[in-house]
Specification:
This protein is mainly β. It is built from three helices and 13 strands; from the N terminus they run E-H-E-E-H-E-E-E-E-H-E-E-E-E-E-E. One of its GO terms (biological process) is translation.
Length: 216
C-alpha cells in the first residue's frame, strides 16, 4: 500500500506565522526538485512522524499537496534538541526514472573478534552516499564486523554494493575499525629522598664535634 502524506500550501511566509503553524501541531516544510518548482507547505506533525518511521529517510512516498500527489522523499530535517521536535522538513520531488544521490545510514552488525578480545570498535562513517533510482535506494547499509580483529578495518571498497545502487564515497575511506584496548598507565616511580644528615650527628669515633669550644 502506497503511503500518502497530506500537505497544505503555505501562503503566509512570515516568521511569526511559522511559530503559529508549529503551535497548531503542524511542521513547516518546503518541496523542491529538478522539475518541480519550489513550494512552501505544512504537514501535520503526527502524520509526518508516522510516515518517517514507516518509510525511513530514503523511502519514496506520495505527498498530497491540496489534492495533487507528488512522489517525494525526506531530503533534510531541522530538529530542535531541547524540545525534541522536528521544526522544518525539506521534501525532494523525485523523478522516478532518473538516478539520484542520497545519504544512507550505516548499520553495524555483529560483534567482532577484536572487541571480544578487549578491542574498541570505532565507527568513522555513519552515512554513505549512494546513487540509485529513487525507489531502489536502500533503507540502510549493513556492515558486518564479526571477522574484524584488533587493528583491522573495513574500507568502503570492502563493502558489497547492491545490484541496483553504487557508492559515491572514496573507496579508501575507513568505515569501521578495531583499535587496541587502552593500555593501563604505568604507575610513576616515586623517588624516596635519602634521610637528611642531622646537624651535629655523631662521628664514627663517638663524641659529637662541638665548634667554638674554648680551651681551659
Amino acid at each position: 500500500m502506497v503511503t500518502v502524506l497530506k500537505a497544505a500550501v503555505r501562503e503566509d511566509l512570515r516568521g511569526s506565522r511559522l511559530s503559529k503553524i508549529r503551535q497548531q501541531g503542524h511542521i513547516p516544510a518546503v518541496v523542491y526538485g529538478k522539475k518541480f518548482e519550489s513550494r512552501p507547505v505544512a504537514v501535520e506533525e503526527v502524520d509526518f512522524i508516522k510516515t518517517m518511521r514507516s518509510e525511513g529517510k530514503t523511502g519514496v512516498f506520495k505527498l498530497d499537496i491540496d489534492g495533487t500527489q507528488t512522489d517525494v522523499m525526506i531530503y533534510d530535517m531541522q530538529f530542535d534538541t531541547l524540545k525534541n521536535k522536528v521544526v522544518h522538513v525539506d521534501f525532494y520531488a523525485a523523478d522516478m526514472k532518473v538516478e539520484m544521490d542520497a545519504d544512507v545510514p550505516v548499520s553495524v552488525v555483529g560483534e567482532s573478534i577484536g572487541v571480544k578480545e578487549g578491542g574498541v570498535l570505532q565507527q568513522a562513517v555513519y552515512e554513505l552516499s549512494v546513487r540509485a533510482l529513487p525507489q531502489q535506494l536502500p533503507d540502510s547499509i549493513e556492515v558486518n564486523v564479526e571477522n574484524l580483529d584488533v587493528n583491522d578495518a573495513l574500507l568502503v571498497k570492502d563493502l558489497t554494493a547492491g545490484e541496483n545502487y553504487e557508492f559515491n564515497n572514496d573507496p579508501e575511506e575507513v568505515v569501521v575499525s578495531i583499535t587496541p584496548p587502552d593500555e593501563e598507565p604505568e604507575e610513576p616511580e616515586v623517588e624516596v629522598d635519602e634521610e637528611p644528615e642531622l646537624v651535629g650527628s655523631e662521628e664514627e669515633d663517638g663524641e659529637p664535634e662541638v665548634s667554638g669550644e674554648k680551651d681551659n
